[in-house]
Write a structure and sequence with these properties.
The chain has 309 residues and is mainly α. It contains 13 helices and 6 strands. The strands form 3 sheets. It has a two-stranded antiparallel ribbon. Strands 3-4 form a two-stranded antiparallel ribbon. Strands 5-6 form a two-stranded antiparallel sheet. Helix 3 crosses helix 4, helix 9 packs across helix 12 and helix 10 packs across helix 12. The chain is elongated and about 85 Å long. 29% of the residues are buried.
């Protein structure tokens, strides 16, 4: 009997001093474990964050469990105090205790803007890394609401968004073939329309104007490209902006820009595919957001004098 009590006492003392969580365990904290971090570094990180009392114990448990070299990177949510055995188990299997990250990308969002949303929802994924991976896919990352698991990677996010684009564009492929335009041209045009007009009616009219200008060999003179060129949201470029040396400058270069300036949604894609047939060659948006169209440059100048001065 005395022996059993002594054993129980030793076990209790061992738990309290070795396995039990610290008294000031930060319940409700989220701890991010970086990809490729070593077990000693992880143990020290969790000890410094007061998740475990003794980093050596956590390292020992991970080693004898065989999970020492297979700790899952990611963001872990510690809702309530947990002992070292539980913490080790969670690290080994990737039990993050976090819901999927819900990220919404509005129509017309650029890769750079998407990167900020990703980094805000998933702090382990730097915005700069997302920009590098996403830039080659500008225009083809479909704007939508997504649920990503806490352990997702930038490559998986980009692949998921690209797959969604492919699924959404598939029903439009017959119309694209019938239009005589390539998929790339339609996506570029849709990205311009996305920023130039807000309603379906005006988007289709703007599409008609821009396709007309392309057919006549006129420069598109789309102001929205300058936001993309300078990485800022500007639709009133200065005279200096109009001369910037960039292949995206639709004032100094004839034809479509070399690539999309954002990631357009279905409405803009459909407008690019089904433009309103019109004789208009010019348009502008007045200070109240109302759009005005003209068939001649003289009429366009009259609209400028009337609505913009």
């Amino acid at each position: 009997m005395v022996g059993a009590l002594a054993l129980a006492f030793v076990l209790v003392i061992g738990y309290v001093f070795v396995l039990a969580p610290p008294r000031d365990f930060p319940s409700g904290d989220i701890i991010s474990i970086s990809q490729g971090a070593s077990v000693p570094d992880i143990a020290r990180q969790l000890s410094d964050a007061l998740i475990v009392k003794h980093p050596e114990v956590l390292r020992f448990v991970l080693r004898i469990s065989g999970a020492g070299s297979h700790v899952q990177a990611g963001a872990y949510f510690f809702r309530t105090p947990e002992n070292a055995l539980t913490v080790a188990y969670r690290l080994a299997v990737g039990a993050y205790d976090l819901p999927p990250a819900r990220i919404t990308f509005p129509e017309g969002t650029t890769v750079r803007e998407m990167a900020l949303r990703v980094a805000g929802a998933l702090p382990l994924l730097p915005a700069e890394d997302f920009i590098r991976a996403g830039k080659p896919n500008e225009g083809y990352l479909f704007p939508d609401t997504y649920l990503f698991p806490p352990d997702t990677t930038i490559e998986k996010i980009v692949a998921t968004m690209r797959e969604n684009f492919d699924a959404k564009i598939r029903p439009l492929l017959p119309d694209i073939r019938a239009s005589g335009h390539s998929l790339g041209s339609v996506v570029i045009m849709a990205s311009l329309i996305e920023k130039e007009a807000r309603t379906t009616e005006h988007r289709r009219l703007v599409a008609g104007v821009l396709w007309n200008r392309l057919a006549l060999g006129m420069p598109l003179q789309v102001d929205a490209v300058f936001g993309y060129i300078f990485n800022r949201d500007t639709y009133s470029p200065s005279f200096a902006d109009l001369t910037v040396d960039s292949p995206y400058n639709t004032y100094t270069h004839v034809g479509l820009p070399p690539g999309p300036i954002n990631n357009p949604g279905l409405n803009a894609l459909n407008a690019a595919l089904h433009p309103t047939k019109t004789d208009y060659l010019y348009y502008l948006t007045d200070r109240n957001g109302v759009m005005h169209y003209a068939m001649t440059y003289a009429a366009h100048q009259a609209n400028q004098a009337k609505y913009l001065r």
